[in-house]
Amino acid sequence: MPFPVLKNYLARLSHQTQAGTSVWLDGEGRALGRFFNCTMTSAFQPLRELESGKLVAFEGLARSVSKADEGLSLWRLLDHAASDDESVELDRLCRMLHAINFFRQAEAEQADLYLNVHDRLLSAVSSNHGHAFQRILDALGLPIERIVLQLPTVTPNQGWLLNYVADNYRRNGFRLAINVASVHEATGMLERLHPHAFKLDAGNLSDEQAVASFVTLCHAAKIRVVFKRLDTPAALAALQRVAAITGLPIVAQGYLLDKPLTALAQAKQDAAASAAA
What CA–CA distance (Å, rounded) separates 264 from 172? Predict the structure, then answer.
């Protein structure tokens, strides 16, 4: 493991029981955490180049390991959190678990880790967004430059809030990906926010020529476009047409390519198989 501080932290966790800490290790070495009566861990879904299968990054997703709530997502837990303070606590717990569970695996290598920011968190944190997580990463000796925080889609009247939050995260050393509902919305943010990446829904590409023009524009500006929710053959065909128009690699993520998995090794094996095909 190339992160000695994290290695020492995991060694200490391995001697602690579930009753003795809010974060502990299971028999497979995964970090688990508790939120109310739910036990949480991490799953990771790859972001890939479509044509080559090359792994670009992974998105960390919170999953329940409780028998009663198997597969419960972070968003559902946040939706049911009773207060803003509880939603902030859950968000920080999940980010910490994802960082631990990602970087403890040798297969993480140089891949980036994308982590969601729930829309409730934009207004729940009063100031200095990202400072608490930045301190956690520093304490664990983990590379903040490998983290990309995904900001949610916002309404037009929340533009000021997105600007404020994005500025705070940047000041704390994070790169940003922004979820957008359309190419038109993303174009309006491109110069103003200049994120590391935009994320568009692969199942909602009504104007493929406009999408292709946007991909070309972002490529010139060194901004990645990631097509999320690639779940159907029709969406794949649309992205292949966009790729043909632009002549550029298209990065996508979805169940048509990969299911979220705890271990990164399977995704690496799939990438190798795609490259050899």
Answer: 27
pLDDT at 80: 59
SS3 149: strand
CB atoms within 10 A of CB 228: 21
Task: Give dist(CA 192, CA 259) in Å, integer.
Answer: 34
**pLDDT averages per 10-residue partition of the chain, 277 residues:** 91 72 86 84 95 95 67 57 73 92 92 88 73 94 96 79 88 95 92 94 94 98 97 97 98 96 84 61
- Output the pLDDT for position 73: 58
Helices (H) and strands (E) in the chain, counts: 10, 10
Rounded CA gap, 211 and 242, in Å? 7
CA distance 45 to 254: 8
Q: At what angle do helices 84-103 and 131-140 cross, to 10 degrees?
A: 30
Rounded to whole angstroms, the Cα distance separating 44 from 101 reads: 9
Please answer whether residues 115 and 150 qualify as being in contact, where contact means their C-beta atoms are separated by less than 8 angstroms. yes
First-to-last C-alpha distance (Å) of the chain:
31
Partnered with residue 57 across adjacent β-strands are 47, 112
Give the single-character DSSP code of 221. T
Q: Nearest 5°: phi and psi at 6?
A: -65, -40
Residues 93, 80: Cα–Cα separation, whole Å: 16
Say which residue the tokens 């997105």 belong to.
162
